[in-house]
Amino acid sequence: MKAQIYIAICCFSFIISCSESFEELNQNPNAITTDEVLPPNLLIKGTMLADISLNMSHLQRISGMWSGQYRGEIALYLGLFNYDISSEESNSAWGYLYNGILKQNREIAKYYDLNGIDSEGFLITAITRIIDAHALGTATVIWGDIPYSEIDIADVEDPKFDSQIEIYKALQTILDEAIILLESPDTDSGLDEDIFFEGDKERWLRTAYTLKARYYLQTKQYGEAYEAATKGIVEHEGSMRFTPLETQILGTENLLYRFMVGSRRGYMSANDTFCRDLLSTNEGNRNNAKTDEKARRNHLNAGGSTGTGRANIINGELTPMYLVSYQENLLILAESATRTLSFNQGLNQLNLVREFLQSEDSFELRFSSDDDDKTYEPYTEEDFEIGGMENEDGIDKTRALLREIIEERYVTGFGTFIPWNDLRRLRSETDIVVPVPFNRSDISIHPQRFIISQNELNSNPNAPTGISIFDPIPIFK
């Protein structure tokens, strides 16, 4: 792969000294070279920050516009909203993956190969495995086939593109390796440089299982998804999330805040979107006798300057950004239990989600005036039977329950790739997929993928060509 070397951040103090958001981390000309071998604790934060950027920045925002969660208003984002996109839009994310994450995690492995490994090294190695799996999983679900098996072979300049099915098999193997390390008594617990869990072995272990469940869900292996999720994240505080620094130093804020309130103010909004209509009092909304979405609607009100200095809305300056969450794990349990076990077990899991929504943890620092209006009462079987409040169109009650679970995934996953992934995964299940409208009247299929990075197309003759954003990726065909 003849890509130029991008940045690997050595320490967090470097990040907070920058004048730009860490979303731009690939642009630093003082990048670590391939000849340097630095201590892993100087690299691990950089790989984590690159993983945040891959999952929460430019391509995620585009996927949100393609799944009814944002609107592109002007300039580049208006074109992207209308599906006018080029391969150059993938360049930065491709760099995060291959140079900001995979390359630097291999530098960490090289350090241990040269210097030996101790109990902290086992922990850091397990964490890098999980970061690898998280990043690769995002990459393959948005691009399809990607290079992987040959990227570490020294004499291979142009690695092949592995099939998506092989990538998903590799993801499960990588996560299993991390789990073995985390379950070992030889592995330390505690790491100051870990910006997610401070090296808490148990929380990393549960994150690995939730990721296994996520990937089994994406490949429609619902029994395996349920089994993995039973060992996944079990509490809100166990969610893998980045919490911006309270110092409010420029470049360390919530990425959505940095985009919408910073240099791209006005390019994108959450106004007049399908998602916002779902949470409103308009026809076809989610509100019913047991549900009042006012608080969530306000939380997801990603406006312009409204995020300044706040952490109570999705693009608040200090609002945490979720990468792998307790809510996601519960919803994987709900969908996979409904599909493979029973209606009642799926309903029980959905009601655990609603119990969480009713808790103080559900929306960070909500507007106090909304507290009395936030209502998520438990559903009963009767609500999903024909004629019930969640089944007015008279479909099978199990399908009605699945429909509600998928819709809950859609609104819970705001600001992540989950809504777009489900829109593609479930496109043939027209009775339960969220009916997101098209952004253009001449389009009859939602975008199915991003185009491979132009940098890769220019440098690797193995890169696939002639693929459009409307060609389904293999697992969703």
From TrEMBL:
<protein>
    <recommendedName>
        <fullName>SusD/RagB family nutrient-binding outer membrane lipoprotein</fullName>
    </recommendedName>
</protein>
<dbReference type="InterPro" id="IPR041662">
    <property type="entry name" value="SusD-like_2"/>
</dbReference>
<dbReference type="InterPro" id="IPR011990">
    <property type="entry name" value="TPR-like_helical_dom_sf"/>
</dbReference>
<dbReference type="Pfam" id="PF12771">
    <property type="entry name" value="SusD-like_2"/>
</dbReference>
<feature type="region of interest" description="Disordered">
    <location>
        <begin position="281"/>
        <end position="309"/>
    </location>
</feature>
